[in-house]
Write a structure and sequence with these properties.
This protein is mainly alpha-helical and 174 residues long. The chain has eight helices and four strands, in the order H-H-E-E-H-E-E-H-H-H-H-H. The strands form two sheets. Strands 1-2 form a two-stranded antiparallel sheet. The chain has a two-stranded antiparallel ribbon with strand order 3-4.
């Protein structure tokens, strides 16, 4: 069974990056979807776990593979961070079968995509992990988030952890 609403959300992320002339990698799709899930303005029908590089959904990976199988999306090229994706020849099929996003949902998707496109992969990892700490461990202040982030990821410096917590606070005010 095809999860059209989930596919539409993945496709919306890919289309947003593509429309703005940006390459989108699987890593960014994962992190954008997680940040959208904790933002609360868009229903994200995927479960996430805290993994090596931050929040990760095995379901998203499976859905991307399914979308590739019926050409809703296509692999575009291999770049600095892996394979990029673009809308495929059957992207319209997803739009026909999924519910349409509201203007507020479209705005939320665009805002998170724009933020993600401006981050390096490591910065995006740290911000999404900070988001996990806020959402799952109920940490609210930047210092608490930064401290916990450093305890989880020993390779993250104090400055990097503080920057991640502050970036999260700007992106998703509590």
């Amino acid at each position: 069974m095809i999860n059209y609403d989930g596919h539409a959300l993945i496709l919306a992320v890919i289309e947003d990056f593509h429309a703005n002339g940006k390459a989108v990698y699987k890593h960014q799709i994962q992190k954008v979807l997680y940040l959208l899930s904790i933002q609360g303005e868009v229903n994200v029908p995927f479960d996430f776990v805290l993994y090596r590089r931050g929040p990760y959904s095995f379901e998203v990976d499976a859905e991307i593979e399914q979308m590739l199988s019926y050409a809703a999306i296509t692999r575009a090229a291999s770049g600095a961070y892996g394979t990029t994706f673009i809308p495929g020849r059957n992207a319209a099929f997803v739009h026909e079968h999924a519910r349409a996003f509201t203007p507020a949902e479209q705005h939320a998707i665009h805002r998170i995509c724009q933020f993600a496109a401006e981050q390096t992969p490591l910065e995006l990892d740290r911000v999404s992990a900070a988001g996990w700490l806020r959402a799952r461990e109920q940490l609210r202040d930047d210092q608490g988030i930064a401290s916990r982030l450093r305890s989880l990821k020993s390779h993250v410096s104090n400055d990097e952890a503080n920057t991640a917590a502050q970036s999260l606070a700007r992106l998703l005010p509590a």
